[in-house]
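Please check what follows.
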Amino acid sequence: MNAIQDMRDTLGKPMLITSAYRSPVHNASCGGAPMSRHLEGIAFDISLHGFEHDELLGCAKDFFCGLGFYQTFLHVDLGPARSWVSSRKAREQWRL
């Protein structure tokens, strides 16, 4: 929670968190990865609404190691350093 609050403070505006901790049952029902960091309570999905992609990503990199790029949200987590892109459209949208 500290990292997401620090990110919010740095951005200076609210963020819409669309997913945080997930129970194993909920994670499975929404198609989450079996080893999702959401199960550990160290992951967040942040809506892109109200943010430029570069603004959100630049700030996220200061606080989180895991980054997942989706069309409608940015996944951030405190797991090992890694990144992934969910689709070709997301890659184009994020200019990756």
